[in-house]
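User: Show me a protein chain along with its predicted structure.
Assistant: Here is one chain, sequence first, then structure tokens.
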Amino acid sequence: TTEIYLFPYTTLSDLSAVRAAAVARALIAQGQDESRLTIRGLADQQPRVPNHDAMARQQNRRVEIELRPLG
């Protein structure tokens, strides 16, 4: 397996949450309405593909963004 340098975070979930928050801040700074956003960092909690190799783990490192319609 490939080690991921996490310091100062203790888990992949912590790191993923920080990444998701950074995406949210960037979208809000560009004028996106905060009330329309749902952003989740999923880390290893909900993999899209099995975490068998480095390529699969890379695909599973993601932030999902839901943008609700206006009105």
